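This part of the workshop introduces the protein records we will be handling. To make this concrete, we reproduce a full record directly below:
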Amino acid sequence: MAWGAFSFSREGRARLAAVLRALLIVQLVISLLVVLLCYNASFRVMSLLKQVHRLTVYLFYGLIVVHAYCMKLQYTSGLRLISWLLKCPHWPRAALAARTWLISGTLVAFNGLLVYAACRGTLKALMKELSSSLRIGIAQYLTEPTWKHLMDTMQIELSCCGVERPNDWHEIPWINLDFLNEESLVVMKLAGTDGKILPPVSPYSCCTPRVLAACYHDPLQQVEWRGAWAAGSPLPSASLHTRGCAEAIRAPLARALLGLQVFNVLVLLLQFIIVILAQLLRTSAIEAVLSGDFDGPGRGWLLGTLGPTERASLITKAEAYVSARAEISYRRVPRTYAHYN
């Protein structure tokens, strides 16, 4: 019993195959765009995070690359299968090959949504760990050269300051009392009982080049501009980056995730269309074989299967067709064996 039947001539099947090829090429382009978008959107951020969370960065890129490669294998094999269905519709295993290909393609499409969910969960956990890691980096800014280089590079390249906001440098103890003059009245006012002080000082990497004025980042050493802090001038805050580094990292990763989600939904919709068209192409070719004219019209259907009688008839006609083609090929071969007698 067949449902959703449509009749296709040989030219109609050729046009149907052309549409299928175009859709498969679109899917291949989408798989390439997924890799390029995620790579370009997150390369700068991930290259910095690789020094802190190497395994998480490799997992994020690995999931996307493996999924894109599976899409490439799926749709390049589909191009070959479509050509095979047009040239050899009598092939008895065409139905099994087509069903296997359609099922694997649907699984690949749904796997894209799973990859998106896995990348989203991975990046969510990364942002939680990153906040703690950057706070450790601020606390060890002057004692660990690796953290100093990473924090300075991140704040300069991403135009950010602090973890969530620039004032994190004023709330996290990162300057030991031993680095300063303990006899200074200013230092003694800012000193705590734990041997650290919390001065309103930020590293020079927090300075923004957008303000054409001096960078007010260190009131302890910039004595000539100390009046700007005392008078409550807006210049001290304007001369520093206003965005925290966590937000600067989150923004490109969110764009990469959004692109991944949109492309995977589009792949799923296109896969639904590919399943319908491939089913019509395969069943129409089978109907043409059963009618005895391999190049004639055939009725394609969306739902239903061949009965035992139709299946046996298809196999018989396919064998007869193969035998006839073999006989034609044999007759075309030059018979030169007589020269050797």
The beta strands are 6-8, 175-176, 196-197, 298-300. Confidence is low (pLDDT under 50) at residues 335-341. The first strand starts at residue 6 and ends at 8.
